[in-house]
Amino acid sequence: MKKDPTEIAVSIKDLTVAFDKKPVLWDIDLDIPKGALTAIVGPNGAGKSTLLKAALTIIKPTAGRVDIFGQPIKRQLSQIAYIPQRNSVDWDFPTNVLDVVLMGTYGDLGWIKRPGKKEKNRALNVLEKVGMETFYDRQISQLSGGQQQRIFLARALVQNAAIYIMDEPFVGVDAVTEKAIVTLLKELRDQQKTVIVVHHDLQTIDEYFDWVFLLNVRQIAFGKVKNTLNEENLRLTYGGRHSFITAHP
Prior knowledge:
Elements: E1 8-19, E2 22-33, E3 37-41, H1 48-55, E4 63-68, E5 71-72, E6 80-83, H2 97-102, H3 106-109, H4 117-129, H5 145-157, E7 163-167, H6 175-190, E8 194-198, H7 205-208, E9 211-216, E10 218-224, H8 225-228, H9 231-238
Parallel strand pairs: 3-8, 3-9, 6-7, 7-8
Antiparallel strand pairs: 1-2, 1-4, 4-5, 9-10
């Protein structure tokens, strides 16, 4: 039976990316269903961040295409909220927490119209959801790593997107923030949002995610965590260089 394209949130076909004629991603085919909470996993240099950026058209792929709910991604960018790696942002830029979160409303407003009371209330409500409402007027340079990540998450949540794509959201955060982020990711999934996360901790995949995509330049495996995250697939992904306690006998 042919898949309903509207039930496939992200469809990646034949995606290849090469830098200086050297492939960093090779012939990726991936259909992520609507409402999936998915981890992208692989060693350093596997192409995880490149996959996100190529799928989002931030970098130009050598070949391939990406559809969102059955439509070319360029028509559907408003459906996506993207959280890049925290170290890719200039945290010394002179702006405060509320203004950063309000940037998530620009997709609805456009670049000419300024956020009003409605948007500010929405941003404050989201800040409360991530436990940062009392920091609304704080300069972002004064925040800890965990607080910065919560602000990133708030900016994404205020977009009310259908798809959330996050690059290493747990790096450099404290245990309390990590738990709060996981809770929010699961809430998004329960609302039938699609969540795609580059993740590095093999020990928490079973607890945090429902689906997993194993990648090392080429795709290794994709499926439900309980069926896919096994020793054989991990050896193919990491070349035997991993420490993993099998969660499923």
